Amino acid sequence: MNEIIELLLNHRSIRKFEDKPLSKEQIEQIVRAAQAASTSSFVQAYSIIGISDPEKKRELAALAGNQAYVEHNGYFYVFCTDLNRHSIAADMAGKDLGESLDFMEKFMVAVIDAALAAQNAAIAAESMGLGICYIGGIRNEIEKVSDLLKLPDRVIPLFGMAVGYPAHESALKPRLPLEAVFHENEYEDKEEQLKEYDETISAYYNERTKGKRTDRWSEQITAMLTGKQREHMKDFVNAKGYAKK
Amino acid sequence: MNEIIELLLNHRSIRKFEDKPLSKEQIEQIVRAAQAASTSSFVQAYSIIGISDPEKKRELAALAGNQAYVEHNGYFYVFCTDLNRHSIAADMAGKDLGESLDFMEKFMVAVIDAALAAQNAAIAAESMGLGICYIGGIRNEIEKVSDLLKLPDRVIPLFGMAVGYPAHESALKPRLPLEAVFHENEYEDKEEQLKEYDETISAYYNERTKGKRTDRWSEQITAMLTGKQREHMKDFVNAKGYAKK
């Protein structure tokens, strides 16, 4: 196994950071790495908002559900879909995009582009010895976050990323077995593998909590999925000009 | 700059591969790296279909617009959103998910999860000296691809990834300037940076084609965005049980 795969396999989310800001060079190096990811037909349909203003970080932390590590970290990025740039490009080219940006396909392209860029950013940060945590919580109050960052139409804040010098060690929680997510040639029945994973996760919690928790993955994930629905998302996405057709 | 960031910055899509298959160990190592990416609340909402059957690769290549490298490569993966797994998990937990999987939020979670996993796979492959190319073309005929891979409800083929030993060198096409995608504290007007980029891209083509091509990014991207609309996407996504609410 090479050093890079070792880094990838060793990933864990970091939720407590030292009080030590990233340097401008680090901040930009991470953005450059993000930009180097693949992008659908060279469309580069994302923007990255870097939050250096402490007051803005405080507000974001409050909107994301009062997670301290949104405010206290080495730097905070917000990854956004961005097809606004392409409206401007069309104006520059003297062309009319018509309804083309309204299609679900374009929304998917922008979400995928933003996510590929973000994962490169995460790996770049970890390669420098920094820790990261994705913050989906900014979607709890996505409209307020969007207003706070003054995002125009066709720019949606997808998730944040807290980056910094790790101030705690966190355990590697076992992922689904490879056989549960990997299918050969066609989609296969994986119920057996999910049952096996339920036992793995239950044993993991049991050991870490000395018997206080023994919940299975299927229970945990069912509770999670019926929890934070963020029912406003479709209206917000459509109002921003995405996925209308 | 460390070796890992160097690898990230050096990424380019590879569209011609040697006739040399990946080993089982390589195939699985890449999947394990994909699995190690962050996942929203541990939901792991994706599946990876590995295509080893040559006939299936031929069919996929035809459906993706006759790109030879979909058929001829070291291995071919299809990355899918997967919330079907979570219906099964709910049954295992004896719980009812109600309409919770119908929400746009859950679709976004699944698309992001699949994309983060895929980018880890891409980096793992490149770290082994392999090349990769994302294949959005499988969305041209997404319903037929879905049928070919026997994907159930709530499983959508997002994109393919051709992996293999590179049989050509490809140039690094300049990305948008950092200042065009990176905003500080709030969304900023980037028209100047886009104009600058137009000149960069025009000069790039001019040099590579000895003056035969001088198109600007804004022209190129406008043509692209009004081109492959894949207008069937919203109906397909909804029919698969996603983003209905």
TrEMBL record, chains A, B:
Entry keyword Coiled coil: yes
Keyword hit for Isomerase: no
The Nitroreductase domain, residue ranges: 10-165
Keywords for the protein's UniProt record, in alphabetical order: Coiled coil, Flavoprotein, FMN, NADP, Oxidoreductase
Entry-linked Pfam families: Nitroreductase
Positions in coiled-coil regions: 180-207
One Gene Ontology term of the molecular function aspect: oxidoreductase activity
Entry-linked CDD domains: NfsA-like
Domain of life assignment: Bacteria
Family that this chain belongs to: Belongs to the flavin oxidoreductase frp family.
Name of this protein: Oxygen-insensitive NADPH nitroreductase
Organism: Pradoshia eiseniae
